[in-house]
Amino acid sequence: MTASRRLPIACAALFLAGAGLVGLLVGPVSLGALPILRSALSHLPLLHVHSPLSGPDDAILWQLRAPRVVLGALVGGMLALAGASYQGVFRNPLADPYLLGIAAGAGLGATLAIVYAPDVVHSYDLTPLAAFAGGAVGVVAAYALGRSAGGRSTASLILAGVTVTSFLTAVQTFVQQQHSQSLQEVYSWILGHLDTAGWHDDALVAPYILVSAVVILFHRRVLDVLSVGDEEAATLGVNVRRTRLVVVAAATVGTAGAVAISGLIGFVGIIVPHAIRLVLGPSYRLILPLSFLGGAGFLVLTDVIARSVMAPAELPIGVVTMFFGAPFFGIVLRTSRSFA
Amino acid sequence: MVALRNAGLLALPLALALALVPAAAPARTAPPQRIVSLSPTATEDLFAIGAGRQVVAVDDQSNYPPNAPKTKLSGYTPNVEAIAKYRPDLVVISDDANGLSAALSKLHVHTLLLPPARSLGGAYAQIAKLGVVTGHVSAAARVVARLRKSVSQIVASVPKSARGLTFYEELSPDFYSATSKTFTGQVLTLLGLKDIADAADKTGSGYPKLSAEYIVAANPDVIVLADTKCCAQTAAKVKARPGWSSVRAVQDGGVIGVDDDVASRWGPRVVDFMRAVAHSAQIVAAKKQ
Questions:
Q1: Helix, strand, or coil (residue A54)
Q2: Alpha carbon A198 to chain centroid, angstroms
């Protein structure tokens, strides 16, 4: 890695660390910065620092706030990384992680589970699994349809994604409308919910996201080659179809895991990669790792806003990502050189 | 001259109408015999005051009493044709969704709008109103008198030591709650309890979404789970939530599950809801001493 790439990545890592610290320090309950830092140090071995926090305060910090910060980082990083890789393999600036029907599929899976198997869902907490399965079904259907429609362009795949999304959304809306008693539960799932996360959720989703991230980052050079066009990439020795399948599969698995735990959080997958692209240029060797770090920090910070701006009430995280994300992206768009 | 002629023209129908009133009056005041209720609370009210036999259809959410003629009609997305099929002479609604009452008036069907009550007084007034409209005035008055008596008994059953205890009423597992400005929150403050959601309602919606951190820090003495049916929440599940085991209500057995429907309606079963929470407050207050 050259020095020109090391500096931005170090900056992004610093940004994520800072965001994590802010995430721990700020919340509806004021615990004081010093006690929080001392409590954090007390969890490190060999330092022998005593936590000054009382039982309930300690629970608020380590059982409620910390797992939420970690989940925000995992999900935000994954969504931005998946968005960047979709934009790369499809060479389409508007591609986002939900492009291939994953959001609609996950929404339908969760709705079906909540409506038709409420007892099973409630006793075993199966909504994430149903959402994961639904998201996978959506993407496989879109991929199969796009491939069978043929055509060498990626346009048929994107259109297939739009088609599958419309159909699954229609089914989901129908089921939800027929069972209005479940409306509230379905709705609150869809709006996105980092707010009920515990360490259990983090542990559940981390493996999917980390494996997916490693696979995608492994392909960062190939994505640069792919950006010159399918045929040109093929003459340069890249197996275009295999690369596209592997990257899409990895991004899908990671996104499905993120969606299953946290619901649908819009816009992160679009604005974070583009902001990075506008500032630092089009190389995926930079965009991919920076998207993961930047997306992680971005969602942690927006979640801080979600839980503190109306404190002690909360805003749904999806509202905040769009409300603050859109103007932020507008500024980046205006001050950058050109839209590549 | 012109004005005078106009006045004369107006006078004729007026006189006709006046002449017709005595004949029409009995027909108009005859109580409706084919009532459709699209409001679960109104359904409970109607059956409580003895107007159940006049009810021909109730909406898909009207699950109480069990003998109410439940149909697939929806109060959220009402379909005028589907309602008209039951040939109603009165439709009771809690929300005039999609211009329903205007559409029904075209079919010469009366609607009675009984929106969510804001206080016990409002709930009593709706029962009385239904009594007048359906011809069960004295039965409705008896129901209201019985409710008033029950409420004062329940309020009196809460010991002085329980006054000022705090409560958190949970409407969904993502921490939507109700302030004391809402009906469901207000009836609990009548018991002398304090609502922790009040501090969080900056927009005045009455139903703020709280953060878990705030609830744990507020450390309520009583937790009322009004999401037992929708979302299968239980005291055991609350205890297992990360960080919640330190909350006073969890430690003192102050977590109580109630029927979501009873907690969200403003009908005669409100006293069951109040009684259950009062019982919980008694237990917590006894533990404190």
A1: coil
A2: 17
Cβ separation of B213 and A63 shorter than 8 Å?
Answer: no
Q: Which two tokens stand for residue B182?
A: 């809402």
What domains appear along chain A, each with residue ranges and CATH number? Answer: 55-195+209-333 (1.10.3470.10)
Which of A29, A57, A62 minimises the CB distance to B214?
Answer: A29
Among A247, A280, A308, which Cα is nearest to A83's?
Answer: A247
Structure tokens at B285: 């207050």
Q: How far is A138 from chain B (nearest CA, A)?
A: 26
Give the single-character DSSP code of A153.
S
Report chain A's terminal Cα–Cα distance, integer Å. Answer: 24
Helix (H) or strand (E) holding B36: strand B35-37
Contact A313 B209 (CB under 8 A): yes
Quote the pLDDT of residue B159: 92
Interface predicted TM-score (ipTM): 0.72
- Partners of B94 on chain A (C-beta within 8 Å) are none
Chain A positions touching B247 (Cβ under 8 A) are 56
* DSSP letter for each residue of B181-239: TSHHHHHHHTTT-EEGGGGG-SS--S--BB-HHHHHHH--SEEEE--HHHH---HHHHH
Q: Report the alpha-carbon distance of residue A234 to residue B186 in Å, rounded.
A: 70
User: Tokens for B269?
Assistant: 């079963």
- Contact between chains at A195 and B173 (C-beta distance less than 8 A): no
Indicate the burial class of B76 (C-beta count within 10 angstroms; 0-12, 13-18, 19 or more): middle
- Nearest-angstrom CA–CA distance, B45 and B93: 12
Those residues with Cβ within 8 angstroms of residue A185's Cβ, 6 or more apart along the chain or in another chain: A114, B172, B173, B230, B231
Pairing of strands B194-195, B166-170: parallel
The mean of the pLDDT values for chain B is 87
pTM: 0.79
- Tell me the CA distances in angstroms from A86 to A91, A206, A255, A328, B152, one per residue in order: 8, 21, 11, 22, 64
Asked if A63 lies within 8 A of B60 by C-beta distance, the reply is no
Given pLDDT bands bounded at 50, 70 and 90, which one contains residue B257?
A: very high
